[in-house]
Amino acid sequence: MTEDYFIGVHARELERLRDQHAAWRSETQALWARAGFTTGHRLADLGSGPGFAALDLAATVGAGGSVTGVDKASPYLQFLEAEARRRGVNNVHVLEADLTRAEPGAGIFDGAFCRFFLAFLIDDLDGVLGRIHRSLKPGGIVAAMEYLTLESATCSPPIRGFDAHTRAWIAYYRRNGGDATVGRILPAKLERAGFEVTSVECVGGTARPGEPWWNWWGRLMADFGETLVADGLMPRTDLQALRDDWTRISTAAHAFIYTPVLVQVVATKR
Ligand SMILES: C[S@@+](CC[C@H](N)C(=O)[O-])C[C@H]1O[C@@H](n2cnc3c(N)ncnc32)[C@H](O)[C@@H]1O
């Protein structure tokens, strides 16, 4: 296996990515529609992980098109290949590559998609955008769905530990060379890399207990709380209080959260 990404490469994270895809699926498909991804296209899913989006994209482009899942984590790519076989999907390919170093191709793709990916590559963002640019055909399209901010995350009623948990995630990204505000710099960086930005939209918002975005944010607390404590980013007392309060309000009909905001950018290769 190539070098891990700091969130982790293991079975539980794979299942979290499956749920995360389901939670953001309709917004993701709306982005693909704005990008004009369609039948016959040859697309790349960059930082595809286990490829739940890639498998949906494969249906969008149909048998005459193809999708290449590109990731540096071989276990995720093995899962994607096996899952494609299991579903009888023949137009999904995989490419194991570290996109901070390797080119995903030269002028071969009609479009490239990435989601929850560029926040990990801040130190080499210009280089990665240059590689994406070179991988596209003239007029090729990139569609990116990335964090704009985590600071929008809030909870009603206010509960103990919620803000500390959000602050810990922001710090966790920074400590590992990432940045959860990548969406703020992305459009300008895309222009500088030789793209014309044609569309910018934000997604995220209100979620009530039991709804997909509520479960998505709660799952992060459950799966990563201990890591945030162990890394000294969040006091254990805050995590315990958060878990108690989150469980309590998860049955309150009036409770809601506002999620982190993601930005969706579509840009065309000039
Ligand atoms: C949070 S996951 C998102 C997966 C997928 N895009 C999704 O939305 O479900 C981030 C993925 O980026 C991959 N990744 C991180 N840094 C990478 C790099 N330098 N080159 C290739 N893949 C990378 C990780 O291995 C991981 O699978």
Features:
seven-stranded mixed beta sheet; alpha/beta; Rossmann fold; binds S-adenosylmethionine; 10 strands; 270 residues; 23% strand; globular; 9 helices
Can you put this structure into words, describing what you see?
This protein is α/β, with parallel strands linked by helices and 270 residues long. It has a single domain (11-269), classed as Vaccinia Virus protein VP39 (Rossmann fold), CATH 3.40.50.150. It has nine helices and ten strands. S-adenosylmethionine is lined by residues 5, 7, 17, 20-21, 47-49, 52-53, 71-73, 76, 98-100, 115-117, 120-121.
End-to-end Cα distance: 36 Å
Order of helices and strands: HHEHEHEEHEEHHEEHHEE
The fraction of residues assigned to DSSP E strands is 15-25%
Output the radius of gyration.
19 Å
- Give the number of domains: 1
Q: Which ligands occur here?
A: S-adenosylmethionine
CATH architecture: 3-Layer(aba) Sandwich
Provide the fold topology.
Blueprint: H1 11-23, H2 25-35, E1 42-46, H3 52-61, E2 66-71, H4 74-87, E3 92-96, E4 109-115, H5 125-135, E5 136-149, E6 154-156, H6 162-175, H7 182-192, E7 195-203, E8 206-207, H8 212-230, H9 236-249, E9 256-258, E10 261-269
Parallel strand pairs: 1-2, 1-4, 2-3, 4-5
Antiparallel strand pairs: 5-10, 6-9, 7-10, 8-9
Helix pairs in contact: 1-8, 8-9
Bound molecules: S-adenosylmethionine (SAM).
Summarize the structure.
The protein has 270 residues and is of the alpha/beta class.
